[in-house]
């Protein structure tokens, strides 16, 4: 509960993985005189690590989504269900789609990535984007109903051969067992290009065992109604296509005057502050941490949450910011949809049901932090 006079406004834009950590931090230790506002398009925010398990049928919707309403109440924050569309940096005002502009002293962006299929003709019209992930759960349920209702064989393709695409196609294949559905994975590069050959071989074997066709070196240059056209002349037909390639930045960021990287993401330093505006921070997929380049993945946003919260406090208090150092080596757990997973770290990899149980334990433990909230420090 806000008791001290409001002297500064902290506005969080987006309910991503890093911002839920900021909300929890400010709920546990409020900063007197600071009013916290959260702008989120959807009140239920998904945890990307559990989304493949949801697709496979292992988790209910509420098990893998964080309800931002009680978390915002715990943090003493205003929750506004809306979407940011612009930024007036000179006046320090955030423009939203449906609400009046909001003034800020410090602004933090954690809005994830946007679908990038429009760079390929026809893709925006004929494919289902996986990102932003906060909209994908509903899209998947709609597609699943359609596959169940079909009386003829259906061909489903996933475009994108990274970890997200691999986990997604395996999860969908597991969920649709017994239905007349054939799956294929299409990638412009090799499978899992950012992983070691050891993990790549294991996943390729599993895909083959599950009768999932893999088309490597297949750069999609056009999407027609029911057909992917590749640069080498291959044409891959489909009844449903999901777009899981690397997503892009929200278009409105280009009009803010903030320094962006070549892909349109907000360029920040090691403190997660914009390199061109000391009042703006960014984390998660929307941020490009120049000293520590990483692929767009939820695991990195999760780790950015605590240092982001700490530096937002310092910025509001006029204290020097501290750079964060990301984990250099970490364990990657890639689920295969059937309560089995491949574990990889560096050049080695292992697989088994134990890896799935480990992944499930890690994911559930992270979710409990934001679902089982402690008592409010200042009472209800």
Description of the molecule:
This protein has helices spanning 17-28, 51-56, 68-75, 123-126, 136-149, 163-175, 197-209, 298-317, 353-371, and strands spanning 8-13, 34-40, 44-46, 65-67, 78-81, 84-88, 93-96, 102-103, 106-109, 128-129, 154-159, 181-186, 213-215, 220-224, 227-230, 235-237, 240-243, 266-268, 280-282, 287-289, 332-335, 341-345, 348-352. The protein has 380 residues and is an alpha/beta fold. It has 2 domains: 8-114 and 248-326, FAD/NAD(P)-binding domain; 117-243, FAD/NAD(P)-binding domain, CATH 3.50.50.60. The strands form 7 sheets. It has a 5-stranded parallel beta sheet with strand order 5-2-1-9-19, with helices on one face. The longest helix is centred in the C-terminal third of the chain and has 20 residues, at 298-317. The protein is globular, with a radius of gyration of 21 Å. The mean pLDDT is 91.
């Amino acid at each position: 509960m806000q008791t001290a006079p409001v002297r500064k406004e902290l506005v969080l834009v987006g309910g991503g993985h890093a911002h839920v950590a900021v909300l929890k931090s400010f709920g546990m230790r409020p900063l007197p005189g600071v009013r916290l506002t959260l702008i989120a398009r959807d009140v239920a925010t998904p945890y990307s690590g559990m989304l493949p398990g949801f697709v496979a049928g292992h988790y209910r919707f509420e098990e893998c989504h964080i309800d931002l309403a009680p978390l915002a109440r715990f943090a003493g924050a205003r929750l506004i269900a809306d979407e940011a569309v612009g930024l007036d940096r000179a006046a320090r005002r955030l423009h939203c789609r449906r609400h009046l502009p909001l003034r800020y002293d410090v602004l933090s962006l954690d809005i994830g990535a946007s679908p990038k299929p429009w760079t390929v003709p026809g893709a925006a019209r004929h494919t289902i984007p996986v990102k932003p992930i906060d909209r994908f759960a509903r899209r998947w349920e709609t597609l699943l109903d359609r596959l169940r209702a079909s009386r003829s064989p259906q061909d489903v393709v996933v475009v994108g051969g990274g970890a997200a695409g691999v986990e997604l196609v395996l999860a969908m294949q597991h969920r649709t067992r017994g239905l007349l559905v054939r799956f294929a994975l299409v990638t412009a590069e090799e499978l899992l290009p950012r992983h070691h050959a050891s993990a790549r071989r294991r996943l390729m074997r599993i895909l083959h065992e599950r009768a999932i066709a893999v088309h490597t070196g297949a750069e999609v240059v056009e999407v027609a109604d029911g057909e992917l056209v590749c640069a080498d002349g291959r044409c891959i037909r489909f009844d449903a296509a999901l777009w899981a390639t690397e997503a892009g930045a929200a278009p409105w960021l280009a009009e803010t005057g903030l320094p962006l990287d070549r892909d349109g993401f907000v360029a920040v330093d090691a403190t997660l502050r914009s390199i061109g505006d000391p009042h703006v921070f960014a984390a998660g997929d929307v941020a490009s941490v120049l000293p520590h380049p990483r692929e767009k993945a939820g695991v990195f946003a999760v780790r950015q949450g605590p240092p982001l919260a700490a530096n937002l406090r310092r910025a509001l208090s006029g204290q020097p910011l501290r750079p964060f150092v990301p984990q250099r080596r970490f364990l990657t757990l890639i689920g295969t949809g059937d309560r089995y997973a491949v574990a990889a770290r560096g050049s080695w990899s292992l697989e088994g049901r134990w890896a799935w149980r480990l992944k499930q334990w890690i994911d559930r433990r992270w979710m409990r932090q934001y679902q089982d909230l402690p008592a409010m420090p200042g009472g209800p």
